[in-house]
Design goal:
- The relative contact order is 0.13.
- The protein has two domains: about 50 residues, Phosphorylase Kinase, domain 1 (2-Layer Sandwich), CATH 3.30.200.20; about 170 residues, Rossmann fold, CATH 3.40.50.150.
- It is an alpha/beta fold and about 230 residues long.
- Helix 4 links the parallel strand 9 and strand 10.
- The strands form two sheets. The protein has a seven-stranded mixed beta sheet with strand order 8-7-6-9-10-12-11, with helices on both faces.
């Protein structure tokens, strides 16, 4: 049995078989370098980085059935809520040197970490910014193929819509990971998800796919939108 298998022909995301189990993986854009303590695995002269779903909503969404073709080589991605760059680094692997990921993060400390990552990965552009106000970083971001939001704030849907309307290309796609407890500590998560979906739809943006990732990240839902 092969130890490496693509999730889909549409995207370079892989299953890799290891002695202690199976893991998602991407081809390392910067061979020999780790980002967050992940394993580096050599197969057929190619180095892969294992992808920890416990630290990535995107990896969890792939495990839950998301089409890996959401992100492709050469894509331009606006990533909102980049943190220290765990998932950003795998997006960087996927899009390759022909793509770019604009990594927006509110915390100066985390942006310093992103800047160190960007020194090694030239397709990452770190941006210190507040995703609630996309006009403040519009000078640094060009039109993108994908808007990706993982911002744990009460007004997640509104932030999502603002950035879609400002940056997403025609026929582009958008991904939002909604954390119910960040929006309401008392409401049932299902109610929260429905309310956020209605907010998005009220701006003329249809949710084309819903992926529940609560198995991996408690009370989280992913929405995929196509514009």
């Amino acid at each position: 049995m092969d130890t490496i298998q693509k999730l889909s022909e549409k995207s370079p995301v892989y299953w890799i078989d290891l002695p202690d189990g199976r893991s998602l993986a991407t081809i390392n854009l910067t061979p020999g370098e780790r980002v967050y303590g992940e394993r580096l695995v050599q197969r057929g002269g190619v180095e892969y980085r294992t992808w920890d779903y416990r630290r990535s909503k995107l990896a969890s969404a792939f495990l839950s059935g998301l089409d890996p073709g959401l992100i492709k080589p050469g894509d331009r991605v606006l990533y909102l809520g980049a943190a220290t760059g765990t998932t950003v680094s795998h997006v960087s692997d996927i899009i390759g040197n022909e793509g770019v990921v604009y990594a927006v993060e509110f915390s100066p400390r985390m942006v310093r970490n992103l800047s160190l990552l960007a020194n090694r990965r030239k397709n990452i552009i770190p941006i210190l910014g507040d995703a609630r106000y996309p006009n403040t970083y519009s000078d640094f971001v060009n039109e993108v193929d994908l808007v990706y939001e993982d911002v744990a704030q009460p007004f997640q849907a509104d932030i999502f819509v603002k950035n879609i309307k400002m940056f997403l290309a025609k026929e582009g796609k958008a991904f939002i990971a909604i954390k119910a407890k960040s929006i309401s500590q008392v409401d049932d998560p299902k109610k929260v998800f429905e309310e956020q979906k209605k907010i998005i739809a009220s701006h003329g943006i249809a949710v084309s796919e819903e992926i529940n990732i609560s198995k991996y990240h408690k009370d989280h839902m992913v929405f995929i939108c196509k514009v």
